[in-house]
Amino acid sequence: METYVQTQTIPQCHPTLCNYELSRYDILLIPLERRLSDQVLSLVQDQQNVRCPICSISIEISNDDEFYAHTIMCQSKD
Fold first, then answer.
1. Torsion region of 56: left, alpha or beta (phi above 0 gives left; psi -120 to 50 gives alpha)
2. Does the CA dihedral 74-65-33-46 come out positive or negative?
3. Cβ contact 37:28 at 8 Å
4. Residue 63: is its pLDDT beyond 70?
C-alpha cells in the first residue's frame, strides 16, 4: 500500500495477475494504520459508497473510523 501512496497510483489486487482495482470496501477490510488507510482511500477511483456487511445499508464514508463506527453500531443492535 505504501508503494501505491508513493506513486499515487490506483491500488490493485495484483497488477500482473488479475489487475482488479480495489474498492473503498476492499481497502477498509485491510488492517492498515489510519494515516495509510486514508491516503490509500483517496487513490481509489470507484467512489461508490461502501455497503455495510451487517445491515447492507450503503454508507458514505471518508475514512475507516466512520466505517468501523457504523459496523460496531450494527453489531450492538443484534
1. left
2. positive
3. yes
4. no
Query: Distance between alpha carbon 9 and the CA centroid of its chain, in Å?
Result: 15
What is the structure's pLDDT at 26?
Answer: 85
Predicted confidence (pLDDT) per residue in 8-55, tens digit:
998 988 767 877 888 888 888 889 998 998 899 889 877 666 777 778
Query: Can you give the residue ranges of every domain in the chain?
Result: 2-77
Q: 41: closest CA among 19, 67, 71? A: 67
Those residues with Cβ within 8 angstroms of residue 8's Cβ, 6 or more apart along the chain or in another chain: 43
Paired residues of 50 in beta bridges = 59
Per the CB < 8 A criterion, the answer to whether 15 and 1 are in contact is: no
